[in-house]
Design brief:
InterPro entries: ABC_Gly_betaine_transp_sub-bd (IPR007210). Keywords: Cell membrane, Membrane, Transport. The protein has 303 residues and is an alpha+beta fold. The chain has a domain of 155 residues: Dipeptide-binding Protein, Domain 3 (Dipeptide-binding Protein, domain 3, Roll). 48% of the residues lie in helices and 18% in strands. It has twelve helices and ten strands. Helix 7 packs across helix 8. The termini are far apart.
């Protein structure tokens, strides 16, 4: 009888120790989980690193702060593309967390291992395309330039190659390099086009490397046919206004349907849409791949 009681006591004690150990382990796991849950926001001071005010992705990021309730308390640091890339570079060198407003095509995806955060609410839209728009009357006034611009179409990989080369040389040099090595594609754009003698063409672009790439390539191609090309970089709203008012001839820069959709609607009917010149573009919140986060909804509130 005494032996049986001791066995029962031993069983109970063993179970108690197991439960205590399990409880301690669970508390430790919960503490680790809570620490991981809050570390990203705390380390980056609940800040999303953005680019220039007025850019379409800037507006979309402001909307994301409102649409996602779990971003209450977060801030959107609007600065410049160059400043954003510097912050991203510094964070990656130290393997620190960072969240940036990003887009592709962009050389940063070739330079670093990055990923988009999932956007279940669709604030940043789906995969985008880049359009070509022209002032009304360009087809009649400068039909040869119009035809080249209407034919202009390339792939994200083409644009990224120019952007990557432009990190070590001027954009006009990178554009010339691309044209020299992609003559078959260029010949499709210029087929049957006779040269002109210094006809001026003004291309309006936004100050993104993507648009610097397309505008400079178009410039090289147009100049090979004798056009005198001027590139004018402005904010997206001014870009649309310039083409709608006829102050500029054309632009290869509008991102649709989300990034520049509001500006497009403001001036729709006041310019001619020549269709897409690139498809497969995307915008959204971007993080280094080493960050253990997959969705915007995974971000925690600052409160």
């Amino acid at each position: 009888m005494l032996q049986m009681n001791w066995k029962r006591i031993g069983v109970v004690a063993g179970l108690s120790l197991s439960l205590v150990a399990a409880g301690c382990g669970q508390e430790k796991d919960n503490a680790t989980k809570n620490e991981n849950d809050t570390s990203i926001g705390e380390k980056i001071e609940y800040t999303i690193t953005g680019i220039e005010p007025g850019a379409g992705i800037t507006e979309a990021t402001d909307n994301a702060l409102e649409e996602y309730g779990n971003l209450a308390g977060w801030e959107h640091d609007k600065s410049s593309t160059a400043a954003m890339l510097t912050s991203l570079d510094n964070a990656i060198k130290d393997k620190e967390p960072i969240i940036v407003a990003g887009w592709s095509p962009h050389f940063m995806f070739a330079k670093w291992d990055l990923k988009y955060l999932e956007d279940p609410k669709g604030v940043y839209g789906k995969v985008e395309r880049i359009q070509t728009i022209a002032r009304k009357g360009l087809k009649e006034d400068k039909p040869k330039a119009y035809k080249i611009l209407d034919r202009f179409h390339w792939d994200p990989a083409d644009m990224e190659s120019v952007m990557l080369d432009a990190q070590n040389m001027d954009f006009d040099e990178a554009a010339q390099k691309w044209v020299d090595t992609n003559q078959e594609k260029v010949k499709e754009w210029t087929k049957g086009i006779e040269s002109v003698d210094g006809t001026p063409v003004e291309l309006v672009l936004t100050p993104w490397d993507t648009e610097r790439s397309s505008a400079n390539v178009a410039k090289v191609v147009l100049e090979s046919k004798g056009f005198d090309v001027t590139l004018t970089a402005v904010s997206p709203s001014i870009m649309f206004k310039a083409i709608a008012s006829g102050d500029g001839d054309a632009s290869l820069a509008p991102w649709m349907p989300a990034t520049h959709g509001a500006f497009y609607e403001d001036y729709e009917g006041e310019f001619e849409d020549l269709g897409e010149n690139l498809k497969g573009a995307k915008i959204g919140l971007v993080v280094p791949s080493y960050m253990d986060i997959e969705s915007i909804e995974d971000l925690k509130s600052a409160e």
